[in-house]
Amino acid sequence: MLSLQIPSIPMPTAFRHLQGRQTCRVYNAGAKTNLEPKNVSRRHFGGAISLAGTIFSLTADPTVQPASAVMGMTAGRVPGLSPANADGVRHYTRPEGKSGGHGVGWTEITPYSFDVYDGWEEVPVSIADPGGTEIDARFSSEQDGGLKVVLAPVLRFANIDEGLNPTIEELIPLERFMAGFGPELTQSPVEEVDIIDKFVEKRGVLTYYNFELRDHTLVAATVWKKRVFIICIKASARQWRNSAEKLRNTMKSFNILTELA
Fold first, then answer.
1. At the fourth CATH level, which superfamily is domain 89-260?
2. DSSP states of 123-175
3. What is the reported pTM?
4. Where do you find CATH 3.40.1000.10 in the chain?
5. pLDDT at 246 over 80
6. What is the pLDDT, as a whole number, of residue 101?
7. 241-258 residues labelled b (16+ CB within 10 A) or e (exposed)
8. CA distance 155 to 151
9. Residue 175: is its pLDDT beyond 70?
10. What angle do CA 127, 228, 137 make, to 5 degrees?
């Protein structure tokens, strides 16, 4: 049996389905074999050699650039975190090309922003995370703690007539917010005794509810265009001792960019 091996070379994604087919065999008609001989024409043989040459030119030519993502409704993470400034602050703005999370939906989402500090990075969102279907983004810092941004549709909690855009005050009172949303944010019931501070603050045209819980959880929330926008920050006891003020600053910096809507 004569065996011709096409050299193994790295293949672009578009050609990987051809792996395992690089060998052309021509069987001797007089040889005894259980396999049915295959007739390999010059056209097929030449086509294999031509394909190998094409693959080699694609992988070897330094002028060929790898494919890159095109901005648009891109699922998953799209960079939106700025480098740290002189004070060590990193500003995040939700990128225009970022799609919604698993259950957030593909409809238009008004960008939001917040500040974190050097050492924070965006991490993947998993549908297996508690509340993962409504988590739009997740960030983590070994030194400071972790945070998530939750986008919950208002229609989950109230019947809103078409064309109306309720505020957070119209949707739910401050005193009842953590009783309603706390279990989803913290994975446990939140009683009044668990809240050590709460206040209402106006940022731009929107009202924000802000909470500090006994277990070192911080929450800021508002409502815009039939979505509840929530940032939830969590720290361990060690992280809280070192970073409590920075985490409070992050909570207070959470802002929906309504001017971009």
1. Mog1/PsbP, alpha/beta/alpha sandwich (3.40.1000.10)
2. E---TTSTTGGGEEEEEEETTTEEEEEEEEEGGGTS---TT----HHHH--HH
3. 0.69
4. 89-260
5. yes
6. 53
7. eebbebbeebbbbbbbeb
8. 12
9. yes
10. 40
